[in-house]
Amino acid sequence: MDNSNNMNTSDNATTNNPPLSIDLSKIDPNTKVYIDEACRASSNEIINTLKAYIAQSTATQMDLIRKLNERLDAGKTIAIRKRNHTTRFTDIAEWLLVFKAYVEAILIIYESREQELST
């Protein structure tokens, strides 16, 4: 099966068709619970991933502040260089955390793209 045709079909379906309306009264309670739990778990995973990234960034910044304070306490001078404003990842783990959060957020909107994002 040609993936490019599938992608065009899903893109066209998303942009050309009106939004799908779901009658929740026709969904059995067990399915509703399953869907709610899956959405909750996915959102919690995104939140936890972002919290981990923020915690890692905060720890790095706090370590830098501690080192600067130690230099100041020792009476040494601190040279401050102007840095570029481009965001760069310091290691692959940081990039993977952010990419995982991105993929999960995209999959909430475009469920059919899971195979593309996981390869």
Furnish the topology, listing elements before pairings.
Layout: H1 3-16, H2 29-73, H3 92-109, H4 114-118
Helix pairs in contact: 2-3
Termini Cα gap: 16 Å
Order of helices and strands: HHHH
What kind of oligomer do you see?
single chain
Using the alpha-carbon principal axes, give the shape.
elongated
Rg over C-alpha atoms, rounded to the nearest angstrom: 23 Å
Mean of residue pLDDT? 76
Number of strands: 0
Number of helices: 4
Which regions contain 5 or more consecutive residues with pLDDT less than 50? 1-14
Tell me the strand percentage band. Answer: under 5%
Question: What is the helical fraction, as a range of percent?
Answer: 55-70%
Q: Which structural class should the secondary elements be placed in?
A: mainly alpha
Sheet bearing the most strands, described?
Answer: none
Biased composition (Low complexity): 1-17
Region (Disordered): 1-24
Brief characterization of the structure:
This protein has helices at residues 3-16, 29-73, 92-109, 114-118. The chain is mainly alpha-helical and 119 residues long.
Protein architecture, described:
Residues 1-24 are annotated as: Disordered. Residues 1-17 have a biased composition (Low complexity). The protein has 119 residues and is an all-alpha fold. It has a domain at 27-78 and 89-118. The chain is built from four helices and no strands. The chain has helices at 3-16, 29-73, 92-109, 114-118. Mean pLDDT is 76; it is low at 1-14.
Key terms:
single chain, 119 residues, mainly alpha, 4 helices, disordered N terminus
